[in-house]
Design a protein that fits this description.
By secondary structure, the chain is of the alpha/beta class. The protein has helices at residues 15-29, 54-58, 66-74, 93-106, 126-134, 158-163, 165-190, and strands at residues 2-7, 33-38, 79-87, 90-91, 115-121, 152-154. Strands 1, 2, 3, 4, 5 and 6 form a six-stranded mixed beta sheet that branches. Helix 1 links the parallel strand 1 and strand 2. The radius of gyration is 17 Å and the shape is globular.
């Protein structure tokens, strides 16, 4: 079992990394393999989804950057965590661009696999940022993994985040819950119970047809 943890912050070793690292340690203590993936410094993500539809024929996003590299890793991953700092009560813009293109061009590689979100903030806006990230998962039939409270940490530096005792505990328990869900799904498959997916082939309509 393997979980990919995505650091969507422009700062590779900042507060978001500190929170994700605590989840990572917890996952590893439960026997789950992990990989921490940084989407890169500002500019590494070449923009948001253009709606061009080329990925439907090509099989990957037309913008060659970290999105396609992550999509290749996602094929063999069993679960995902997406982390972001809070910017104006929202996730980092680069992470939203990254996720919009990833889910549109490579959503089949994520379908039915458990996911969770983590945010770091100085003071407020965390629940709004979490809500924005969490909107991605239901579209791909991905079960959302809980902890004991909203998955957030507080602090302006990694050192301050480490002082957030409740936040750090939330991160550790998130790792425990993710490991539990992955093991439960694996046990189910061993007993012939298929994992969650999208079920019937999706029917696409709009408001006029």
């Amino acid at each position: 079992m393997k979980v990919l943890l995505v650091n969507g912050s422009p700062h590779q070793w900042g507060c978001t990394y500190t929170a994700l690292s605590e989840v990572e340690k917890s996952l590893r203590s439960q026997g789950v393999e992990t990989e921490l993936f940084w989407i890169g410094a500002p500019g590494a993500v070449k923009g948001s989804c253009r709606g061009c539809g080329v990925c439907r024929q090509k099989g990957s996003c037309v913008l060659e950057d970290e999105v396609n590299r992550f999509a290749a890793l996602a094929e063999n991953a069993d679960g995902f965590l997406f982390g972001s700092p809070v910017h104006f009560a929202a996730p980092c813009g680069d992470l939203l661009s990254f996720m919009s293109r990833l889910f549109y061009s490579a959503g089949r590689k994520l379908t039915g696999k458990p996911a969770a979100s983590v945010v770091s903030c100085r003071r407020g806006g965390a629940t709004a940022a979490l809500d924005a990230i969490n909107k991605f998962y239901p579209i791909m039939g991905m079960p959302m993994v809980p902890s004991q409270y909203w998955n957030m940490v507080h602090g302006t530096t990694p050192q301050e985040v480490l002082q957030d005792k409740e936040g750090m505990q939330i991160m550790r328990n998130l790792g425990v819950k993710m490991a539990w869900m992955l093991k439960s799904l694996q046990a189910g498959r061993e007993q012939g119970v298929p994992g969650p997916g999208l079920g019937e082939e999706p029917v696409r309509t709009n408001f006029i047809r």
